Amino acid sequence: MSYDNNNIFAKILRGEIPCKKIYEDEFVLSFHDISPQKKIHALVIPKGKYIDLDDFNNKASPEEIVGFFKGVSKVASKLGISINEGNGYRTLSNIGENGGQEVPHLHFHLFGGEKIGKMVE
Ligand code: 5GP
After folding, report:
1. Who is most buried in 18, 42, 81, 109, counting CB within 10 A?
2. Catalytic residue among 32, 41, 107, 109
C-alpha cells in the first residue's frame, strides 16, 4: 500500500483544510480531533508521509522518530494532561483494518481531562 496524498491529514498538513492547532514543530503537528471521544482528544501526526506506526518505524530517520515521540510528550504537557502537569492520559494509534484506522497517515490519539475507562471494548 502506498501513501495517499489526498488523505485528510495530508490536506491539513498542506493547509488546505483548517484544524484547531495545539502544537507544531519541524517534526509534528498536533490538533484537536474533530469528533472528540473524551474531554480532551488530541491528535499528533508526523510531518512526513507515513501511513502508520510500522511504516514510520521502517522508513523514518532516527531524528524523525525521536522528534515525533518527543512531540507527543510536548503536546501532553501543553494540554496539562501529563503526570507532571495533570492527572495522566491515554495514547493510542490504530493500525490498519483490524486496528480500526480510518485516516491513512500515522497519528497518535491523546485522551485526557477525565478518567478514560476500559482499555478496549
Ligand atoms: P483513526 O480511526 O484513523 O485512528 O482516527 C481518525 C481520527 O481522525 C478520528 O478520531 C476522527 O474523528 C478524526 N478526524 C477525521 N477527519 C478529521 C478532520 O477533518 N479534522 C480533525 N481535526 N479530525 C478528523
Report:
1. 42
2. 107
